[in-house]
Amino acid sequence: MSPVIEARGLVKRYGRFAAVDGIDLTVEKGEVFGLLGPNGSGKTTTILLLLGLTEPTAGSISVLGLDPLRQPLAVKRRVGYLPDQIGFYDHLTAWENLAFTARLAGLISKEAQGRIADALGRVRLTEVAHRRVATFSRGMRQRLGLAEVLVKQAEIAILDEPTSGLDPQSTQELLDLIRELAAEGVTFVLSSHQLAMMQTICGRVALFRRGRVGLVGRVEDLTANVLGGTFRIEVEIEKADLVKVLAGVPHVSGLTRLQDERWRVDAAADVRADIARRIIGAGGALHSITMSQTTLDEVYVRFFEGENHDVAA
Ligand SMILES: Nc1ncnc2c1ncn2[C@@H]1O[C@H](COP(=O)(O)OP(=O)(O)OP(=O)(O)O)[C@@H](O)[C@H]1O
Known about the structure:
four-stranded antiparallel β-sheet; 13 strands
């Protein structure tokens, strides 16, 4: 494991208000790491701290082994940042915008030409390379943002709401590109409220709550932590009392009646075979037994609903 981002005890205060209130974060090389949380929970402030765009009140940050505050230019050179509204020069073409990026990255012209052509090819913008960016759709702008990451060969890309406003196909294309680049070792930090998208792309996510990271981990692990069961099994039965049938079955953590004979079982393991055997053994009729994946959406809703229960570690 080689961490590319490490934050310890990070605090950012505005006056007496702590926008970031003691965050510890470790992101490994090649990870796709998600920042989630309600508006105002501190995600953007954390990103600004990582980029050296604002000064921490306390704590330490290391990005690619650099201190963003002391070495902001080195960090900017090696980290790509795509804010919600990516700022391109609209009156310039895609190619010209990337040429500008290349110049800032200190590339000589010949090397820049090759990289720009390759990057535009990878993000499928070759055909519109010489069109003004003002005419680009949001999906094209997002892809051009990733082309920038490619041109400067950024090792980390931080993307804010990368798929908001994109149609399903453009979303898919962007996510495929992110996956490809992550497989090549680029580390991604994504901040988004689109939970279903985050669940498909992020290896780990951090749930922010009032300036702190309440939970961090793989979605499956958060599920176990927040919902008490990783596996959700739906059972449709007849002529059996599921409450009695399941009494004492190992790994079962919850039972909810959804409709007359439809039940949901929460369990810490895949206990479908065991459940089926017991229902038949009790003389019941088993109409269906299916397992559904818990969504990040449910984890999120339950986590923030549970403010008073304080499920956070
Ligand atoms: N420059 C500032 N001065 C004062 N307060 C600020 C400043 N920047 C951010 N804040 C406050 O810090 C808190 C955290 O803001 P931040 O933008 O980090 O939240 P966020 O999680 O990114 O929210 P969103 O999901 O809306 O992007 C908010 O209450 C915000 O009002």
